[in-house]
Design brief:
heterodimer; A: 487 residues; mainly alpha; two-stranded antiparallel ribbon; B: 334 residues; alpha/beta; five-stranded parallel beta sheet; 45% helix; 8% strand; elongated; disordered N terminus; disordered C terminus
């Protein structure tokens, strides 16, 4: 089921909310069961078989986790091998569904063989819940888990707001809240703020991201046939750069809002990433829960920055390469990861050098606007690989970006009517000057943007939020999946 | 690694519950008011004859055809014409009734459709119009310019089905498919489109759903073809056959000015007809060459449309030709 569908908004969500709080009045445990069943239905709406698969992974990982922590607490040597087996099982499952055909295709290319496997449908959410459960297993090994009952663990993984495309939630973030009695009492404050998050996310997706995709899609999808010119390619790239932000941050806002309606707080996943003035800053603001996961469960275990500069840079590259591959089984994603790994390496090298290079006695310094522009350009450039269907598509786009197909193509010029350009401009203003959703609703910390704006429970805000919801509902018949569903 | 819960950042319970409660109630009221206001807007536009058709596709011309279908009893139709405006504006459907080819014919063609979209649209119609025996498509090179796959819907079949065949009110369609820019552009034009027969974008229709053109316009589009379009024609033939119906395809007689500009030696037309023939594979399908219906007395409104008087004469010739051609001999004769 999609968050941006009528059946979810008008049927599933109200029934689940009312059911949960009604049942919670008499039994918290029964309310947890109800939420678990509702979450399973939410997933099984798409595929019952894969719903059973996710249930199987929950049961197996729960058993693994308990046993690993038990062994680790006894300081038994078997704990580490068992953790390795458990992680291998999870990675193997992900590999089987996500990377099997990619591996075979590349093997065929290298060896000249002709093995063919039927394409598999990727189980929705597998990349997210695999990472979530691996983190749980590792923390069991580190003896950091207060072992929950199976019901709570299952709800931690299946809880529908975060199930399909994150934020990647950790046991220490969700399980204590499930134990807190207060979430089982209905609260207007949680409902009001949750609704605001949800509606802002819905509007980001339907009123900004989807229309922006109508600008970028023809450019990217037709790159090989139409050979877009300089102006079109840059506009298409800018549109995609903004579209993916509004799409994914919109989804994350909706997830945060939905959980909030149940009284549960999920971690924020985006913090105005395009305001970043360095690539390190960008990764602190973009898909925050994934970058934290990669840092805590990959980069640091690889050695992090503890074994000298060369090893640190290698670790950065490996982490980002695997991060790229996590997004999709294609060389374009690998290259996207490699680019970001390289950016991070250069940024850290620059950080180390900066203090030592002086100009007329003053340490060299990049002015903030130039640093922002450089960061925005580098991130946008990397999106070319992320969005392109193949390397051939990506290189066709690069030709356009370099102006090798002329300055303006008449064939594609009709795509750019004033309304679309106005939308692009407004999206840029919102991304660069406005506060983000958590700053708006929760008045969360951080620079709020040049336009100061805070939500309050006033009639004016209720009218504005209702208008956004109505406009979004009016655009929902052309339902497009969220970009991150494919990962 | 930090092990803090995000829940520790903010209080779990709100301090000012009445204010939040009021906000939620205001929000609900604003939503109800918004929907009511939108309904009032539609009502007042309808009163002023400026209400665009329900936006199933966001193209007024196609949506107007859906409106026509919804407002007429089409379940007993036994002969339909499908395609782009080449079909819509050039057929006097009464000719097929008079010739005994149909008892209840319908010109179901809207405008702008490429042949892939025509295939999708035809499949939608045939899925609900079980009495149809014959499907007629008049085509021109414009229909083969750029095609989507017939599997890519350009409207929601579920919603269209509910509206056209199950009597769904148009309000949910306006509400769920609202596109403000297109909608208000249409508000400005729709009255003229429905009432001015001399307007180039006129959407006035006769009782059979045909959209006559009365004035001449100069429009000479360059012939462009995409291979996928001919595959889509094959798909159209397959789905018509699967429904147990007969497909008749004819290419529109080419305008002399257009031929003089783009095809003085007739090579384009010959190649176009050959590709259509190659795409049509079923023995029950008729393909009729446009030149067989052409005549110097017929007057083109533009390169792909006749003025209505000529369309009437053209339709009579076409009906004669369909009736005169023995089904099984058609492909051999070609």
């Amino acid at each position: 089921m999609l968050f941006n569908s009528y059946e979810f908004i008008l049927v599933f969500l109200p029934i689940t909310l009312v059911g949960f709080f009604t049942i919670a009045k008499s039994s918290q445990r029964a309310a947890q069961y109800f939420l678990l069943v509702a979450s399973f239905l939410f997933y099984a709406w798409w595929s019952f078989e894969y719903g059973l698969l996710i249930v199987a992974t929950i049961v197996v990982n729960y058993r693994f986790g308990r046993r690993i922590q038990e062994l680790a607490e006894r300081q038994a040597k078997a704990a580490k091998p068992l953790l390795a087996v458990a992680v291998a099982v999870n990675v193997g499952l992900l590999g089987y569904f996500k990377y099997r055909n990619f591996f075979i295709d590349n093997l065929n290319t290298v060896t000249g063989s002709d093995w063919a496997l039927a394409p598999l449908v990727l189980p929705l959410a597998i990349s997210f819940h695999t990472f979530q459960q691996i983190a749980y297993l590792v923390d069991c090994y580190r003896r950091k888990v207060e072992q929950p009952p199976l019901l709570s663990y299952a709800l931690f993984v299946l809880f529908f707001p975060q199930l399909v495309a994150g934020p990647i939630v950790h046991h220490y973030q969700l399980l204590p809240q499930l134990r807190d009695k207060r979430i089982y009492t209905f609260d207007y404050g949680s409902l009001a703020t949750g609704l605001c998050f949800f509606i802002f996310g819905l509007a980001k997706k339907l009123l900004i991201a989807d229309p922006l995709s109508f600008i970028s899609d023809p450019i990217f999808d037709g790159a090989i046939i139409h050979h877009p010119a300089l102006a079109q390619t840059w506009i298409g790239l800018c549109a995609y750069t903004l579209a993916i932000y509004f799409d994914f941050s919109g989804y994350s806002d909706m997830a945060v809002g939905l959980a909030r309606m149940f009284g549960i707080r999920l971690p924020y996943n985006f913090a105005s990433p395009y305001k970043a003035t360095s690539i390190v800053d960008f990764w602190r603001r973009w898909h925050i829960t994934l970058s934290n996961w990669l840092r805590d469960y990959l980069y640091i275990p690889l050695g992090g920055n503890r074994h000298g500069k060369a090893r640190r840079y290698a670790n950065l590259i490996i982490t980002m390469l695997l991060g790229g591959l996590w997004h999709g089984a294609a060389w374009t994603f690998v290259l996207w990861g490699l680019l970001h790994g390289t950016y991070l390496m250069v940024a850290h090298m620059w950080g180390a050098l900066r203090g030592r290079i002086t100009y007329r006695g003053t340490p060299l310094h990049i002015p903030a606007p130039a640093a922002w522009a450089l960061t925005f350009l580098a991130v946008s450039f990397a999106w070319v690989f992320f969005r392109s269907h193949s390397m051939a598509h990506a290189f066709a786009m690069l030709e356009g970006l370099a102006g090798l197909n002329g300055l303006v193509s008449q064939r594609l010029a009709i795509e750019f009517d004033p309304a679309k350009m106005l939308l692009l401009g407004m999206a840029l203003v919102i991304a660069l000057l406005m506060p983000n959703s958590q700053q708006l609703v929760d008045q969360a910390a951080g620079p709020g943007g040049r336009l100061r704006l805070h939500w309050h429970p006033t009639p004016a805000w209720s009218a504005a939020v209702a208008a956004l919801l109505l406009l979004s509902l009016m655009r929902m018949s052309n339902v497009r999946e969220f970009v991150y569903f494919q990962f | 690694m930090t092990m803090q819960s995000p829940a520790t950042d903010l209080p779990l319970k709100s301090l000012d519950a009445p204010a939040y409660r009021r906000f939620v109630l205001w929000l609900l009221r604003a939503l109800v008011l918004g929907v009511a206001g939108f309904g009032a807007l539609l009502w007042s536009l309808a009163r002023a004859d400026r209400l665009p058709p329900p936006p199933l596709t966001a193209d007024a011309c196609i949506d107007e055809k859906f409106k026509f279908l919804a407002e007429h009893d089409i379940r007993d139709v036994d002969f339909i014409a499908v395609g782009s405006s080449v079909t819509w504006r050039n057929l006097d459907m009464s000719a097929f009734r008079h010739k005994g080819l149909a008892q209840k014919p319908l010109n179901a063609a809207p405008c702008y459709l490429h042949i892939g979209e025509t295939a999708y649209y035809t499949e939608f119609l045939l899925g609900h119009m079980k009495k149809v025996k014959t499907v007629l498509a008049v085509v021109s090179p414009r229909d083969f310019e750029q095609c989507s796959s017939p599997k890519d819907g350009f409207f929601s079949a579920t919603l269209a089905n509910a509206y056209v065949f199950d009597g769904l009110s148009s309000f949910p369609i306006y509400l769920t498919n609202f596109q403000p820019v297109d909608f208000f552009k249409q508000v400005l034009q729709i009255k003229r489109m429905r009432t001015d027969p001399d307007y180039y974008f006129t959407m006035m229709m006769d009782e059979y759903g045909s959209g006559p053109l009365r004035k001449r316009f100069s429009w000479l589009p360059e012939p462009l073809f995409q291979n996928m379009c001919f595959s889509a024609l094959t798909e159209l033939e397959k789905l018509v056959n699967a429904a147990g119906d007969k497909l008749v395809v004819t290419d529109f007689p080419f305008q002399p000015e257009w031929q003089a500009k783009y095809d003085p030696r007739g090579d384009v037309v010959t190649a176009f007809e050959a590709r259509i023939r190659a795409a049509l594979k079923m023995p029950s399908t008729q393909f009729l060459r446009g030149t067989e219906m052409a005549s110097d007395s017929l007057v083109h409104a533009d390169s792909v449309h006749y003025v209505w008087e000529s369309a009437v004469e053209y339709s009579a010739r076409l009906a004669d030709r369909i009736a005169a051609t023995p089904l099984t001999a058609v492909r051999d004769a070609e």
